[in-house]
Specification:
The structure is a single chain. Helix content is 34%, strand content 22%. By secondary structure, it is α+β, with helices and mostly antiparallel strands. The chain has one domain. Helix 1 crosses helix 4. The termini are far apart.
Length: 245
């Protein structure tokens, strides 16, 4: 009898297995367990995303009240729910796009998550839903500049027990250390969002290196200049992963 590893599980094949169950029965049980784990992680992530939307709306209202009369109307923040899995928060020249993936993921074996006692005790807790936070320029969407770049500034991972960890710009440096302790709450999401918003506002648009933009075709000029569509991103021509503010 031999064993083959798949993900977090080991399967046996041959005429029998240690539990005296057929191969099909064993596989059915594993399918049920893993499917239920993924479904619960998805449900928790969706609930957290809905809570995140509530916090974004509250933040937009608070910003508007604090800034009203002090800045131009177009600078005031706006929150837009774009569907079940997406929301937007615009503030001045920045647009934060919040996107929940509909699938549940497991981390590669080199990820530090697997070193946690919490995960060693139950590897199924390593399955997580994910919420991404991207930073774009508001004008990229306003002028439909499809070639413009956005930047992933944070992502939130949530598992079947509603435990989470967040990684990204200026987010907690502890990363996964407290994964088995921290749970998603409105207060926690507010802290994550405030950090992401502050980072986006302070993450300035840099002039791209001359050599990156010194040549342009006639077609590019006719199309891009007439529609303000010259490719733009806060760090075009620079390495984003080595840049911070």
């Amino acid at each position: 009898m031999k064993a083959v590893s798949f993900g977090c599980f080991s399967y046996f094949y041959g005429k029998s297995n240690p539990m005296g169950k057929s191969n099909n029965e064993k596989h059915y049980e594993q399918l049920v367990v893993k499917s239920n784990v993924k479904q619960q992680a998805y449900t928790n992530t969706l609930s957290s995303f809905n809570l995140l939307k509530e916090v974004l709306k509250e933040l937009a209202d608070e910003f508007r009240e604090a800034l009203d009369g002090k800045v131009a109307e177009e600078i005031l923040p706006e929150f837009h729910e774009k569907g079940l899995f997406e929301a937007e928060f615009r503030l001045a020249g920045d647009l934060l796009v919040f996107s929940m993936h509909s699938n549940v993921f497991v981390f590669n074996r080199e990820h530090p998550l697997w070193k946690l006692d919490y995960i060693k005790k139950d590897p199924l807790n390593g399955y997580c839903g994910v919420i991404h936070i991207y930073n774009f320029l508001s004008d990229s969407f306003k002028y439909n500049r499809l070639q413009d770049l956005g930047y992933l500034i944070a992502r939130i991972f949530i598992n079947q027990e509603n435990h989470f960890f967040v990684e990204g710009k200026r987010q907690s440096g502890e990363l996964v250390k407290d994964f088995g302790i921290d749970e998603v709450t409105k207060k926690v999401l507010r802290q994550i969002l405030e950090t992401a918003i502050q980072y986006a506002v302070e993450f300035d648009l840099l002039v791209p290196p001359y050599d990156q933009v010194k040549i342009a075709s006639v077609e590019q000029m006719k199309v891009e200049i007439s529609h303000s569509k010259i490719r733009t991103g806060k760090r075009v021509g620079f390495k984003f992963n080595s840049d911070d503010v």
